[in-house]
Amino acid sequence: MDRQKIAVFVVFALNGGVYGSWATRVPALADQVHAGPGAIGLALLGASVGMVVSTTFSARLMTWIGARGVMIIAGAASAVIPILLGVVGTVPLVWLVLFALGIGVGLVDVAMNMGAVLVERRTERAIMPVFHAGFSLGGLVGSGGSAFAAAHGLDLAPHLAIVAAVELAILAAVVRWVPGESQPQSTESAPAGGAVPFRRIALWLLAGVALCSAIAEGATADWSAMLLVKVHGMTEGAAALAFSAFSVTMIAARLGGAWLQRIFGPTKTLALGAAVAGAGLLAAALVPVAWVAYPGFALAGLGLAGSFPIALSLAGEAGKRSDGSGGEREIAFVTGIAYTGFLAGPPAIGAIAELTSLSVSFVVIGLVGACIAPAALLAHRARLRERALHLPVG
User: Domain tally for the chain?
Assistant: First the structure.
């Protein structure tokens, strides 16, 4: 039994569980603060802004206290902060609580991905997508628990307090096995090329892969039901099943992601996934037969499953030092770019839909997903060039 691997997988699941637990109680939160869709939508941006802000200092924090230290402190905070959502009474306070939560979740996100990279280095196996499947599974469990709580009339505060207690207990049980102790940063082990990842062409291209993946995934989550109801005439219940197909195939593909990478390698896996995702999204948008949307979104989940995890894995390897440490800044950099996609993508797609149509907006999403392929191929070539120059690339 690989305790480190299990511990990191559990941390991914806990972070997904935090999100799934509060995000599906938004209707109750809106009623609590007497907010309409527009006001609560602005409040929800607080979490996204907090996540983007967290990436500006997460790497430095990890060099001080290690990835494990960040996971302990930020993980505990992320479990407890949502309880405040059950007691706030105004929209600005909701924004502030979600901003703080976004910082905590964002810090855990970067740290747990660093922990996953450390496990990959130790085992010499590409298993990052499997860890991200843990996040997705945690989200499903969290949202399922929220549905149960809402169905039985449990108020927000006690529900989220129960979630916090469970999360803290599980975190305390596994944290001893999480890798990522703090390490002194010596000049001998510093990456070639000096201080910043911003000058690395390969990292910018990997960030582009993560950005396209985030835009396509976030926009699909937010707009798929609207497309199926408004364009294909489905009921809301039937439309929800399409996103379920997207989510289930994404989890399945992530669980099998290590096998795919061993067969095709990371670059071909990214390119193949981009082609599958683009085809699925375009089919859902353009084929005038309602049921085609189901396999279309299922293909999209299948194709997008590996993009973000593989980009992070390659980014972590790009920062690997001669002593086996490093990668914190590179992961934080790529994650920060991806978060801007989650933040700006859905509103941008909404604006395109307003100016044109929902079908056109999903054509754009499909093309964005397909752009992962050339970005991955160019990143591979850039990594080879940097390797020839003896830069620390994976």
Answer: 2
* Of 356, 334, 388, the residue nearest 128 (C-alpha): 334
| Residue partners of 143: CB distance under 8 A and separation at least 6 | 20, 21, 23, 24
Q: What is the band of 192 on the pLDDT scale with cuts at 50, 70, 90? A: very low
Question: What is the rounded distance in angstroms from the CA atom of residue 46 to the CA atom of residue 23?
Answer: 13
CB 116 within 8 A of CB 71: no
Output the domain CATH number for residue 107: 1.20.1250.20
pLDDT given at position 53? 94
pLDDT tens across 45-99, in order?
A: 899 899 999 999 998 999 899 999 999 999 999 999 999 999 999 999 999 999 9
Question: Taking the model in full, what pTM does it have?
Answer: 0.84
In terms of domains, do 42 and 169 share one?
yes
Could you read off the pLDDT of 219-252 as tens digits, one per residue?
888 788 888 888 888 887 788 788 888 989 999 9
- 191 phi-psi bin (left φ>0, alpha ψ -120 to 50, beta other): beta
- Return the pLDDT at 247: 87
Does the pLDDT of residue 367 top 60, yes or no? yes
In terms of domains, do 151 and 213 share one? no
Q: Where are the alpha helices (DSSP H) in the chain?
A: 3-23, 26-33, 37-54, 58-80, 91-123, 128-151, 156-174, 201-230, 236-255, 257-286, 293-304, 307-318, 328-355, 358-370, 372-388
CA distances from 112 to 62, 116, 322, 347 (A): 11, 6, 22, 28
Secondary structure of residue 127 in the 3-state scheme? coil
> What pLDDT is recorded for position 189?
44
Domain containing residue 104: 3-177
Residue 354 burial (C-beta neighbours within 10 Å; 0-12, 13-18, 19+):
exposed
